[in-house]
Structures are given as C-alpha cells and as structure tokens.
C-alpha cells in the first residue's frame, strides 16, 4: 500500500507503541525505565509460542504472540513492582534500569535464546497491523483520560499526599500504571522482534529505553495522543532532513539533537501542548457546561447517609506523637460528635497540624489510641483507608493538583463516591456516561458551593490564593465526608472572604457534616465553632464553648506570652 | 443498545482480521521490471550502457561500527571513481548511513530498493543487520553484495545474496593451523566477547577448528563488549599456562586486553581473526602488538594483482593507509563492474546472474570466485606482527 515507505511507517507505529509504555507511567508520575526488560522478556517468550506459518490461511501468527507478550510483560512488571514500587523518582528509575540490565544479561547467557547471536524470525508484522495496534492504544488512552482511574493517575502524579487523602489508593494506582507499562512494553517487544526479523539481547538495551523516554516526553504525557505526535516527529525529522539535502554524517544527529533541545526547553508539556494551545485559540470561551436540567445522570450519585447527630465521630485517648525527643503532640484526649464544629487553635508549633495528620492517617501516633469513624488510628493501610471511612481534609499549604482544572481537581475528590468507568468507557456503555455525569454533577455542586463556578476550567495553579483555599474545600467536600478537617482554610483571606467561609462552614454543619477547623483567625473560630480546643506545646490547655475558652487566662498567656500585658488585650 | 454492542464487536473483529492478515509467500511476486536504458551494447571492456547504473550502499558511517564503515565508504568510492574514469559504463552511488541501528538499516534498504530503484546494494557493515535486510532484498529481487558480513549462514538467505568477505571459519581454519605449525602450539586458552554476535559466532568456529586440529583448550574466559578491565580473566589464563591465547574480540576491547595481558606478563602469542586485522591496531598497541597472529582476507604485504597500486592511490587520496575493510569494499566495486560488463546489462536480474558466475577474478584480495551459493572463495592470509609490522606467516 505504501510502497517504499512501509518500514518507515511501521517504525513510526512501533515507536509510538514503545512511547505509550513510558507514557502510562509518566501519567501517574513514575519514572520507570525498565521497559526494555519487559519488552525483551515478552519478545523472547513469545517466540516459544508463535507458530511458523500463518493462522487459518492468512492471519499473522504474531496475533498469538501479542497476548503472550503482554501477559509476560505485565507479570514481570507486577513481580518487579512488589519490591520496587515503594521507590520514587530517580531511585525507581535506577532500580528499573538495573532490572532491564539483569534481563539482558540473563538472555545473553541462556541456552535457548542462542546468546548474543539471537534468534532469526519471520516478518509477521505488517504496517497495517502495527498501526492497528497503535490505534487501539490511542483509543484506550483517549478513553482512559476522563475515567476514574485516569483521574487517579493524574492525582498521584500531581500530589501523592493529596491523592491519598481523597481516597485514592496510591500504591495500587502506581502499581496499575506500572503493570500497564509492562504489558505495553511486552507488546512492543513482540511486534519489534517480528518486524525486524530477529531478536537479540543487544536490541533491548539502554538506547531502546532512551528512545522510548525521549519520544514520550517530546510528545507530551499530559494528553493521550502525545506518543503519537512524538513518534511522528522523531521518525520524520531524519526524512525531512534527507529531503532538505542534509545528508552529511554529523549534521543529521546534530539537528535532531538540537530540535529535541528546543522542544524540551520551549515546550515543557511536549509537542502536544501546541495542540492544546491551538485548541484554546480556536475556542476562546470555555466549553459550555452541559445543561443541568433533570436529564438522566445529571443528579449526583446516591450518597450514603451521614452519621446521625450526636454519634461519636472521633475519640482520642492520650494520643501523642514524638519526633525523636520532640513531643509534637502529647497526651491529647478529645471527643467529637456528629454535627459539631470543633475549632482547634493554638500558637505556631502547638502541634495542630500533627494532630490533624494523625487523624487523617498520614502520620501514626507514637502513644495512646483513638478511633475515627470506627477506624483505629495508626492502623495499617495508609491515608486512603481513612478517607474511605469518611474523613476528608484540606492542607495548611495548599496541595492542589496544579495542572488540573478546578473541575478536574474536584472530580478527583469524587473518587470515593463514584464507580470505576474505564472498562465501560472503552465499550461506550451508556452506564459509564451516566456514572461520569453523576460524578461531574457531584463535583460541580461543590464548585458552586464554594463560589468557583465561573472558573471551573482554570488550572488550579492559576487561581488566586484565596480561590485555591476554596478549591481545596470543594475537593474535600466532593468525597461526601462525614468528618471534614479544614487546616487553616482562612489563611490569606480578607475579612469578607473569611465571613463567607464561616457562613459556608455553618451551612455544611447544618447538612450534617462534622467539622474540625484549625485556624489562626481567632475571631472566625469563636464566631463559627460550637466548641473550641486550645493546644500549646502539644498539649490541650483549654476546651469548651468559645466564650469560656476566650476568657481562659492560660489561653491568653499562650497567645500573648505573658499574663500582665495579656489581660489588657482581651 | 444490544445491537450497537454487537455491531461494534463485528466491526472490531473485521478490523482485527484485516490488520492481522499477512501476504503468504510474498517473495518475488512482482517480477522485476527491466529498465531499457540499463541494457547496453558490446561486451566486456567494449560494453557501453547509456544510463548510469545505480548502486545502493548501506554502511555504518556513524555509531558503533563507524570504525569500519568509513574505510568501506572510502574504498568503494575510490574504486568506482577509477572505474567511471574508464568510460563505457558509469556507476552512480546512492549512499545511506544506518548509524549502526537495525531499524535504520531496514529503512535504508527499503529506500534504496523501492524509491531509488538501485540495481544492486553493497553493505551493510554488520552481519547482524544483514540477516534482516538481505531477507528484504531477496524478497524484492535485488542482488546484494556483503563486504564485511562474515557470519555463518549469510549466503544461505537466498540466490540474490552474495559476499566477498571470507567467513570467519575460513580465516580461522587457516590461521590456527598456521600458528600451530609455526609456533608448535599444543594447548591454548580462548577468550571471547559473549555479548557481540560476531565474536560469539567466531568463538563457536574457533572451538570447532581447535578441536579438529587436535589443539587442547586449557582455559576459556568471556567478557563483554564494553569491558575495559580484563585482568581477572587474564590472571586465570596465565595460571593455565597455555602456549597461546586465541582471542575473539572487537577492536575496542582488543587494545586494552592485549596491553593488560602483556603487563601481567602473559607473553604468549595471541591469535585472532578478522576483527583486528587493521593497521590501527598496531599503532594503538605499539610494542604490545608483537607476536599478534591475525587471520584475515587481506594484507598490505599481500602480493596480489593491483594491491600496491590500490594502497598507493588510497593513501594519496585519503591520507591514511587502507585496511581490510577498504580493500574488500574496493574489491566489491570491481566485482560489480565485472558482472555488469560480463552481460553488458545493469539491470537487477542480469547483475544477479552474472555475479553468480564470477570466477577466477583478479582482485586486490587475490584470485577470487563466487560459488553457486553466493559464497566467496579466495586464499586467506595469515600475518604475524614482527618489529611493529604485519608480516605474512607462511603456514
């Protein structure tokens, strides 16, 4: 069909497939470089099962090898992932490179692989087959983006701590992307071997890893078609140079290298960010919000009942946390009942944030015990389990998913109240669309509730400080929490904004949400809360109704340093 | 809704079938179309062909095998320049660099075959790639002439595949007995690079030849292509106390390996194959090169027809002495010219037929013939380094 260009376009498709195996881990914020190892294992093992002659008279025998290669790659990734998935960043990269090297040495020295001489194979991969496989991948990644697991990938990439407090199982999400990467790499290995007619250990080396990574990054890993763009770019550059008459040996790699440098420096989001820019230019106004009329699927999901008023939500008995010799929190007793608005105040360093981190499962207590919504404090399993029990929180320093829009941030918050949709989206089942609409509707409600409805398509990083605080609250609310912990939500807000926030908090409590408010703005706490606890040097120094606490001499001393001057100021 | 799912499934199934189809037995189904302008009049030296004969060339000019590719390019260009000067037939070279990458090599072959429609292709540099690319040429019906593809099994790819580089087993079969006779070897140690396809294939041949010749292998060590430290293997070999060390390595590893062997006091002769038959080796090794025995296809000391002229004109043109790669490339051009003039036809089919009938051709490699399988036959040369120079070792 494409006489004279068949191998060029096949190579382009194969490079795109390899790039997808990097894309899927980059999407979830993992720098894994072991793909050459997965590809090698997948390819070698597939040679054991791929028949020598076409199937049923005309089907490519490699169709047998593809599922085998994918299964082998995925299994290898899972087994490798068990020990290495706890590593992050460059450490994960190094561990996975080491794995690829181990596989290479293994294949080099095994008998059945024929060592360095490799195995000779038939060419069973046609351009049509390669592009068909790539098209399936592009399709799958297009459907993945706005699904629940796709949002979980993005959330983990942007901020693992925030993702876990939205109920996203970070370890599992990272493992999912790692296994998917292994499967795609295995697929690539099989196609590559049956395209170049041979398989040898040296084919799956460092340079394959570099190629894949460069294409994935140049294409951009924030949108589904990035690898396709990257592969077209990398494959076409030499051809264009040839057409332009730049044939001399060193010029070609030089120009390619220089172009790469330009792309990386000027387009951190990869080539696909150009597409995003053009898209934005063509459609100046943000996409219209789907009508919120009474259409099927536009209601929020069915939400579980919140705990009945006055049932205990949180109990702490002598809870403490030591960092070495420092008692950050010491012997705290606390009880919180449904419907309450508990204010926690105290000077800087009083242990407020440590207390919150213990409740939300980010930090385990070193002494005492406590329960939150039926879960023991410090139990194994991580913060997402606490979130699943119904605790949702904001952070003292905003932990938003910077590159995601306001609505997308809030959608991550619906993780716990929405259903997995990826597989159903692949099949275009109408129920997937209904579930997605429900999630969007739940998210949109929260965005409206905090007053960001007109900014729902703005990336979180571009919001003003006050809006970022409000977005955090919207995201935390999207999970339909029983207990909402707000860690200094009014910091950086002016008086009017703080008053609005106070109003919002009271309305949430009226809806049945239990609230724990950590704040420096004492006036706001006194106005808003039903009960106040004061911490100083990690200990509770006062507790009770706001007016009582406000006149407590110990509190005044803690805030103002000495009781002589203190009294005059209250 | 159910019907929509069903129809989607049907469409998907059809797409899988369509994409997954392979043409069965696609080889040679399009009969090569002869270009009229490439068929000439007369024969032999009198032959004149109107259009220039397009010759495709794929060498590794950059990347790992560039050390060979550059010599090959120079040798080939020099020869065709001389041949074009003779008149009657003109050759037009289309040069591609495969950057020592398999995918680039495949793409280069496709371009030469489909887009440039060359009559014959010279190269690629590495056997590794030839196993894939020669297969493509065979299926397209384009003759190929390998000039450094010495691995076992290359000519078996098909009847369009030829080479003028003697296989490693031939070179070794000559150099090992010659070394044994000259030096009285009884037992040897073997070292090879087990990561490289070429050197591990040569290693297999070495052990076979040693076995046939009744030479005992007392030590057998391996290393990897990028290694630079060989002292632990060499120390073991020194303890085995062999009469000689037989080495299968690429040039990059050979230099430090031989130097370290000499440093450790391992002073036995070192016997090797094609891979380090290069004057560069002596320059780099200096004194350590003494006693190195090399089996190969060509030597500057070889008294073959035109060899002295070749060396002189090469050195004049490129300011450096030719090596075996240059000599084999130079020879390739003369073989192609001989085949074209034999039938006075520059078409693919004619070149294939006439190349297969080359016999007793006088070249700088010596008197050379191709057999019906496309395999080359000529007398290999065995050299020993004495006083810093390659000297023929009479076996």
Strand and helix layout:
The complex is a heterodimer of chains A (570) and B (395).
Chain A (H helix, E strand, L loop, with lengths): L5 H22 L7 H12 L15 H23 L4 H21 L9 E2 L6 H18 L3 H11 L1 H6 L4 H27 L1 E2 L6 H14 L6 H18 L7 H16 L5 H11 L29 E12 L2 E12 L3 E5 L6 H8 L7 E6 L2 E2 L6 H7 L1 E3 L12 H8 L8 H5 L3 H20 L15 H14 L4 E5 L7 H16 L3 E5 L3 H7 L2 E6 L2 E6 L1 H5 L2 H8 L2 H7 L1
Parallel strand pairs in A: 5-10, 5-11, 8-9, 9-10
Antiparallel strand pairs in A: 1-2, 3-4, 3-6, 6-7, 11-12
Helix pairs in contact in A: 1-5, 1-8, 1-9, 1-10, 2-3, 2-4, 2-8, 3-8, 6-8, 6-15, 9-10, 10-11, 15-17, 15-18, 17-18, 19-20, 22-23
Chain B lengths: L1 H19 L32 E7 L6 H21 L4 E7 L4 H14 L4 E3 L4 H14 L3 E3 L14 E3 L4 H16 L3 E7 L3 H16 L3 E8 L7 H10 L3 E5 L2 H13 L6 E3 L6 H7 L6 E5 L10 H12 L5 H20 L4 H8 L5 E3 L2 E5 L5 E2 L3 E6 L2 E4 L3
Parallel strand pairs in B: 1-2, 1-3, 3-4, 4-5, 6-7, 6-8, 8-9, 9-10
Antiparallel strand pairs in B: 10-14, 11-12, 12-13, 14-15
Helix pairs in contact in B: 2-11, 3-4, 5-6, 11-12
Pfam family, one (chain A): ABC_tran
InterPro entries (chain A): AAA+_ATPase (IPR003593), ABC_AA/LPS_Transport (IPR051120), ABC_transp_permease (IPR001851), ABC_transporter-like_ATP-bd (IPR003439), ABC_transporter-like_CS (IPR017871), BCA_ABC_TP_C (IPR032823), LivM-like (IPR043428), P-loop_NTPase (IPR027417)
GO cellular component, one term (chain A): plasma membrane
Task: Write up what this structure looks like.
The complex is a heterodimer of chains A (570) and B (395). Chain A has 570 residues and is of the alpha/beta class. Among the domains of chain A are: 6-232, no CATH class; 312-390 and 481-569, P-loop containing nucleotide triphosphate hydrolases (Rossmann fold), CATH 3.40.50.300. Chain A has helices at residues 6-27, 35-46, 62-84, 89-109, 127-144, 148-158, 160-165, 170-196, 206-219, 226-243, 251-266, 272-282, 352-359, 383-389, 406-413, 422-426, 430-449, 465-478, 495-510, 522-528, 546-550, 553-560, 563-569, and strands at residues 119-120, 198-199, 312-323, 326-337, 341-345, 367-372, 375-376, 391-393, 483-487, 514-518, 531-536, 539-544. Chain A has a 6-stranded mixed beta sheet with strand order 8-9-10-5-11-12, with helices on both faces. Chain A has a 4-stranded antiparallel beta sheet with strand order 4-3-6-7, with helices on one face. Chain A is elongated. Chain B has helices spanning 2-20, 66-86, 102-115, 127-140, 168-183, 197-212, 231-240, 251-263, 279-285, 307-318, 324-343, 348-355, and strands at residues 53-59, 91-97, 120-122, 144-146, 161-163, 187-193, 216-223, 244-248, 270-272, 292-296, 361-363, 366-370, 376-377, 381-386, 389-392. The longest helix of chain B is centred in the N-terminal third of the chain and has 21 residues, at 66-86. Chains A and B meet through helix 1 and helix 5 of A and helix 1, helix 3, helix 4 and helix 6 of B. Chain A: It is found in: Cell membrane.
């Amino acid at each position: 069909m494409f006489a004279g260009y068949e191998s060029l376009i096949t190579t382009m498709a194969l490079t795109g497939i390899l790039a997808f195996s990097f894309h899927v881990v980059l999407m979830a914020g993992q720098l894994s470089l072991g793909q050459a190892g997965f590809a090698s294992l997948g390819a070698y093992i597939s040679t054991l099962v791929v028949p020598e002659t076409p199937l049923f008279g005309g089907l490519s025998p490699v169709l047998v090898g593809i599922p085998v290669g994918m299964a082998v790659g995925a299994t290898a990734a899972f087994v490798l992932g068990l020990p290495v998935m706890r590593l992050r960043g460059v450490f994960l990269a190094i561990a996975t490179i080491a794995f690829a090297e181990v596989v290479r040495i293994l294949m080099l020295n095994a008998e059945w692989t024929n060592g360095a001489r490799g195995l000779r194979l038939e060419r069973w991969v046609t351009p049509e087959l390669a592009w068909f496989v790539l098209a399936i991948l592009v399709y799958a990644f297009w459907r993945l983006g706005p699904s629940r697991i796709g949002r979980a990938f993005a959330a983990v990439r942007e901020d693992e701590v925030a993702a876990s407090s939205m109920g996203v199982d970070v370890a599992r999400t990272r493992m999912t992307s790692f296994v998917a990467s292994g499967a795609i790499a295995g697929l690539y290995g099989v196609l590559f071997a049956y395209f170049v007619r041979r398989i040898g250990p040296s084919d799956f080396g460092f340079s394959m890893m570099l190629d894949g990574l460069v294409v994935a990054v140049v294409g951009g890993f924030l949108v589904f078609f990035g690898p396709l763009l990257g592969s077209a770019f990398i494959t076409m550059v030499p051809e264009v140079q040839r057409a332009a008459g730049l044939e001399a040996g060193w010029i070609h790699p030089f120009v390619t290298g220089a172009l790469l440098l330009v792309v990386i420096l000027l387009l951190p989001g990869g080539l696909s960010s150009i597409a995003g820019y053009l898209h934005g230019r063509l459609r100046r106004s943000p996409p219209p919000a789907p009508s919120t009329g009474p259409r099927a699927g536009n209601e929020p999901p069915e939400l579980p009942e919140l705990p009945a008023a006055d049932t205990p939500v949180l109990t702490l008995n002598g809870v403490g946390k030591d960092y070495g010799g420092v008692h950050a929190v010491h012997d705290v007793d606390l009880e919180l009942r449904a419907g309450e608005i508990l204010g926690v105040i105290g000077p800087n360093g009083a242990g407020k944030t440590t207390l919150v981190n213990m409740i939300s499962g980010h930090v385990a207590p070193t002494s005492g015990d406590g329960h939150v919504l039926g879960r023991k404090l410090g139990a194994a399993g991580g913060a997402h389990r606490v979130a699943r029990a119904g605790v949702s929180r904001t952070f003292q320093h905003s932990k938003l998913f910077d590159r995601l829009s306001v609505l997308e941030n809030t959608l991550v918050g619906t993780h716990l109240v929405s259903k997995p949709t990826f597989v159903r989206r692949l099949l275009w089942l109408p129920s997937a669309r209904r579930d997605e609409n429900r999630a969007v509707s739940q998210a949109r409600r929260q965005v409206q509730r905090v007053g960001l409805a007109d900014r729902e398509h703005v990336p979180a990083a571009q919001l003003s400080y006050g809006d970022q605080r409000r977005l955090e609250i919207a995201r935390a609310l999207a999970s339909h929490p029983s207990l909402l912990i707000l860690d200094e939500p009014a910091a950086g807000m002016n008086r009017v904004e703080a008053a609005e926030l106070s109003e919002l908090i009271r309305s949430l409590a009226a809806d049945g949400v239990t609230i724990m408010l950590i704040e420096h703005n004492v006036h706001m706490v006194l106005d808003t809360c039903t009960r106040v606890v004061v911490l100083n040097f990690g200990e509770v120094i006062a507790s009770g109704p706001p007016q009582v606490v406000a006149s407590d001499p110990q509190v005044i001393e803690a805030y103002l340093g000495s009781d002589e001057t203190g009294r005059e100021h209250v | 809704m159910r019907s929509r799912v069903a129809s989607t499934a049907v469409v998907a199934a059809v797409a899988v079938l369509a994409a997954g189809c392979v043409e069965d037995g696609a080889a040679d189904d399009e009969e090569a179309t002869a270009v009229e302008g490439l068929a000439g009049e007369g024969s032999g030296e009198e032959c004149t062909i109107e259009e220039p004969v397009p010759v495709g060339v794929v060498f590794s000019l950059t990347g790992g095998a560039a050390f060979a590719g550059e010599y090959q390019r120079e040798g080939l260009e020099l020869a065709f320049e001389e041949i074009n000067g003779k008149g009657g037939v003109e050759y037009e070279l289309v040069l591609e660099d495969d950057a020592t990458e398999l995918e680039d090599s495949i793409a280069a072959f496709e371009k030469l075959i489909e887009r440039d429609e060359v009559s014959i292709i010279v190269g690629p540099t590495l056997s590794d790639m030839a196993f894939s690319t020669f297969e493509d040429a065979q299926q397209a019906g384009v003759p190929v002439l390998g000039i450094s593809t010495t691995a076992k099994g290359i000519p078996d790819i098909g009847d369009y595949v030829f080479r003028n580089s003697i296989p490693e087993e031939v070179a070794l079969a000559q150099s090992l007995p010659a070394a044994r006779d000259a030096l009285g070897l009884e037992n040897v140690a073997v070292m090879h690079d087990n990561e490289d396809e070429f050197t591990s294939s040569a290693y297999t041949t070495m052990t076979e030849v040693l076995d046939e010749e009744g030479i005992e292998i007392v030590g057998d060590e391996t290393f990897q292509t990028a290694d630079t430290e060989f002292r632990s293997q060499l120390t073991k070999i020194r303890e085995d106390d062999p009469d000689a060390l037989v080495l299968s390595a690429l040039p990059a590893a050979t230099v430090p390996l031989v130097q370290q062997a000499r440093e450790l006091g391992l002073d036995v002769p070192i016997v090797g194959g094609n891979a380090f038959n290069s004057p560069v080796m002596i320059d780099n090794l200096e004194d350590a090169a003494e006693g190195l025995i090399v089996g190969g296809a060509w030597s500057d000391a070889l008294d073959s027809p035109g060899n002295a002229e070749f060396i002189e004109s090469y050195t004049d043109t490129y300011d450096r002495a030719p090596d075996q790669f240059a000599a084999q490339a130079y020879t390739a051009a003369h073989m192609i010219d001989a085949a074209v003039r034999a039938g006075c036809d520059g078409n693919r089919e004619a070149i294939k037929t006439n190349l297969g009938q080359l016999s007793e051709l006088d070249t700088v490699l010596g008197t050379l013939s191709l057999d019906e399988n496309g395999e080359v036959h000529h007398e290999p040369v065995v050299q020993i380094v004495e006083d810093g120079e390659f000297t023929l070792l009479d076996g």
